[in-house]
Write a structure and sequence with these properties.
Strand order of the largest sheet: 2-1-3-10-4-11
Helix content: 25-40%
CATH architecture of the largest domain: 3-Layer(aba) Sandwich
Low-confidence stretches: 1-29
Radius of gyration: 18 Å
Length: about 260
């Protein structure tokens, strides 16, 4: 199915990175802990936040977007207390600028990269060297997060290059602002295939996994977490500890994440 410009734009608007709307650190302090997290964490981290609320009587405010967009917002002074990236590059970027508390940094989760299609699709398409991805697209496009900046897009491009098919499909890639926007295009039937994380696919009943990329086709998918340097909210460290607790680990595992990167 070809993707209409109107539907594509609607998908981007629905899932685009959220700009920070607060008025500064003082407001963030009053509203509780502010977490900036990769878009692919939304379902799982929302559930962790619910568990934290039940356990502590408090909650955090979570802003989801591409790791690249969130890192840039932190660089520009957005009042975040905790950052969870979908790759080490953007955490390293902030670390290099002295913007995270290095002592609190650690690898939290891992993930797998998969090829998805709308749920009604019955054709398996296991990624392998020189597999006919272009032919499988028909006259449609391949939904992927931005391949130059967003972790899921970078992993996906690397995998397709490793398998020798990137050159054929590159002109037909529909790039989105984050991985959940790519998921949405396939979920709505606006793209016949997409590359997302396994956890994204499991969270949406309107898509199915048609193939899984071998781990050696791309760098390990690691989600590092850290406190933002200068985060002074008294509950920030406690929430960070809770995210690493057995309660949170069980939630992450139930939604398909790998523990410990």
């Amino acid at each position: 199915m070809t993707m209409s410009r109107r539907a594509f734009c609607a998908a981007l608007a629905a899932m685009s990175g959220s700009a920070w709307l607060g008025s500064g650190p003082a407001r963030a302090q009053n509203q509780g802990v502010v977490v900036f997290a990769a878009a692919s964490l939304k379902n799982a981290l929302d559930a962790v936040n619910d568990a934290w609320r039940r356990d502590s009587g408090k909650s955090v405010r979570i802003s989801y977007a591409a790791s690249s967009a969130l890192a840039r917002q932190i660089e520009q002074g957005a009042p975040a207390h905790v950052f969870v990236s979908a790759d080490t590059d953007w955490m390293d970027y902030l670390d290099g600028k002295g913007l995270i508390d290095r002592a609190t940094r650690g690898d939290l989760l891992g993930n797998r990269l998969v090829l998805i299609a709308p749920a009604a699709s019955a054709r398996p398409l296991q990624p392998a060297p020189s597999f006919d991805l272009a032919g499988a697209l028909g006259d449609g496009r391949l939904a992927m997060a931005n391949v130059d900046a967003v972790p899921a897009g970078k992993y996906g491009k690397a995998a397709l290059e490793k398998l020798g098919v990137w050159a054929k499909v590159a002109p037909r890639v529909a790039q989105t602002e984050n991985v959940r926007a790519a998921l949405l295009l396939v979920s709505r039937g606006e793209a016949p295939l997409g590359i997302v994380y396994r956890t994204d696919a499991l969270a949406d009943p309107n898509v199915r996994i048609v193939g899984t990329f071998a781990s050696e086709t791309h760098l390990p998918i690691i989600y590092p977490i850290a406190l933002v340097r200068g985060a002074t909210h008294p509950d920030a460290a406690a929430f960070l500890a809770f995210v690493r607790s057995p309660t949170a680990r069980a939630i992450f595992e139930a939604q398909g994440f790998l523990i410990g990167g």
